[in-house]
Amino acid sequence: MNGFDPVRELDIRRDLSDASLRLLLQSEQWDSSLAAAADDKRRKIYGDEVYLRGLIEFSNFCKNNCYYCGIRAGNQNAVRYRLSKEEILDCCTQGYDLGFRTFVLQSGEDPFFTDALICGIVSEIRVRFPDCAITLSLGEKTRESYKAYFDAGANRYLLRHETADDTHYRKLHPESMSLQNRKRCLYDLKEIGYQVGSGFMVGSPYQTADCLIEDLRFLQALGPDMIGIGPYIPHKETPFAAFSSGSLSLTLRLISILRLLFPYALIPSTTALGTIHPQGRELGLKAGANVVMPNLSPVRVRKLYELYENKICTGEESAQCRGCLEQRIAAAGYRAVTAVGNVKKEKQNDDDC
Ligand code: 5AD
Ligand code: FES
Q1: What is the pLDDT of residues 16-34, one digit of tens each?
Q2: Ligand 1 centroid from CA 290, angstroms
Q3: Is the pLDDT of residue 202 over 60?
Q4: Which one, 64, 158, 203, 207, has the greatest CB density within 10 A?
Q5: 169/139 Cα distance (integer angstroms)
């Protein structure tokens, strides 16, 4: 195709046709120019700053049975744990002293943590650390629950849609779950006023290029502030044990496409990316990501929050992990910052009014 440059078009127009997206996804041809354009874009908006988020994985109990996930209810061999409110607050204190100004509280869908318990934890964090952002990642809840957490002081919510394709969704999840409810959750969260994060796994079983295009289209409709993607990685105690991991190159390609489609988004370079390649997170940053999420959970539980196998950073104390990441970020040519790191919004052009 003479003169056809999908990267340039994506960069300028912030969109592409399905056909051009498919080409971009399925070829290595544009990988270096795509990553360069994405890095350029992120530097224009976020400079060389990489935001640190302290991740606290406070319960690995889960009532769901997603076929890909190592902490699914059906995994009888998972060793389950819950942190107490005091333990969670201790993690925050440690994190605060290390400079973290965002805490991400993540768990499986654990009915033990009632709304009253979650609100109690959130409001205590809000009182003790008023200058911090509180991000929740607790799965699908009712609109009322989301509203209660928000009123208690939570600001952000992460809920990956996992796949926006109905048929694909059915292949990854049992009958009890639905894509429709997941989308409902995301729109409720947005309406309530959260900064919302969504995303999907790359290379999950049965995923096609068309599924990925649907994922991108869904994200365009939702308009999230944060977009988290990472490669699928198998876990031996799941029905998908025999499927292989998603690829590094496709994940990087998608990070760059996301940066160009959503210039202002907060995009993490994920632990899963660091798990499939020793330099995975650094490469993710160079491909356009601008967030990393070091683990603040107590070391004794880290290995137990095992969504997939060989997860990295499970043996390190929080301070070590933070130091390690800071060095890695610097070596990759960026700067770790401890600011609260809210999403930057595009300035409205007066001419548009
Ligand atoms: N491989 C990679 N990512 C996974 N997740 C769950 N299981 C796996 C796996 N086997 C991701 C899902 C979920 C997030 C917390 O972790 O996308 O939303
Ligand atoms: Fe966690 Fe290196 S980033 S130990």
Answers
A1: 999 999 999 999 999 999 9
A2: 20
A3: yes
A4: 158
A5: 16
CATH number of the structural domain spanning residue 195: 3.20.20.70
Q: Which residues contact 161 (CB under 8 A, 6 or more apart)?
A: 179, 182, 183, 186, 198, 199, 200, 215, 218, 222
Smallest CA separation from ligand 2 atom 1, residue: 321
Q: What is the dihedral of CA 139, 140, 142, 148, to 10 degrees?
A: 10
Ligand nearest, relative to CA of residue 302: 2
Please name the residue whose Cα sits nearest to atom 4 of ligand 2: 321
Around ligand 2, the residues with Cβ closer than 6 Å are: 294, 313, 316, 320-321, 324-325
Summarised one tens digit per residue, pLDDT across range 159-190 is: 999 999 999 999 999 999 999 999 999 999 99
Domain span including residue 56: 30-341
Ligand 1: nearest atom to the Cα of 240? 10
Tell which atom from ligand 2 comes closest to the C-alpha of 316: 4
Residue 25: both structure tokens together:
């996804």
Average pLDDT, the chain: 96
The domain tally of the chain equals 1
Inside any domain, residue 7: no
Answer yes or no: pTM beyond 0.85: yes
- The position carrying tokens 């356009």 is 288
